[in-house]
Amino acid sequence: MFSNEIEKFLRLKKYPVFDPKAVFFDMDGVLFDSMKYHVSAWVQAMVESGLPFTELEGYMNEGRTGASTIDGVFMRVYGREATEEEKQEIYKLKSIYFEAEAKIEQIPFVHELLLKIQAQHLGIFLVTGSGQATLLDSLEKHFPGLFIQERMVTAFDVKMGKPHPEPYLMALKKSKLNPWEVVVIENAPLGVESANAAGLFTIGVNTGPLDPKVLTDSGANIVFDGMKDLFENWNKILNS
Ligand code: CA
User: Ligand 1 centre and the CA of 177: distance in Å?
Assistant: First the structure.
């Protein structure tokens, strides 16, 4: 059913075969329904720091590290990057608002999908730009036994962060797999861009308020409008 998308991907990347052995999961907006809290915390922290920032910008910047998001706003407002001190101050503020407001909830159907993937003996990796302790600590509680430290790339590991391919290339290296043996699940335009630039087959799942078309435009190989849709089609993708 998805053989056209897969053939197109193989042709474009000049890969010999599509043979998934591991799935790389993004965290915010894929595992946890946390984006609305991130966006609200960013808007509050930026505005309080005298920097204009909208919710839409929050969603469009999803996937970047905190430092990179702050630099982007500084470039736009002051024509320069933020200093280390300014970054720490604003990120601290953002984290305080996030921790105060966020309720940690799973994206519906993602746990079922993870269990299915585990039963299919595919490797499960986490690739996130987040350094938010609450969420990283919640992984084991919400998804017991599914994510292990050695199979994670977080904000603490990367220099560039998404949309740069670095985080996905780092995960690929950790997995010791070929790029045609990996499937990425992402919900944000910059995350899709990062995975695509790393040469990986990327499934875009729209779990937020953006038009799903932004995921196609960013280079997603298949786009689903919600996790339920992906869960129900998962075996068809593997068997294509
Ligand atoms: Ca995300």
Answer: 23
Whole-angstrom Cα distance, residue 78 to residue 80?
5
Spell out where the chain has E strands: 22-25, 123-127, 152-153, 182-186, 201-205, 222-224
What pTM was computed for the model?
A: 0.92
Q: Does residue 121 sit in the same domain as residue 204?
A: yes
Q: How many domains does the chain have?
A: 2
| Interval between CA 117 and ligand 1 midpoint (Å) | 19
| Residue-range definition of the domain harbouring residue 26 | 3-34+106-238
- Ligand 1 (ion): residues with CB under 5 Å are 26, 28-29, 187-188
Q: pLDDT tens for residues 100-156?
A: 999 889 999 999 999 999 999 999 999 998 887 888 889 999 999 999 999 999 988
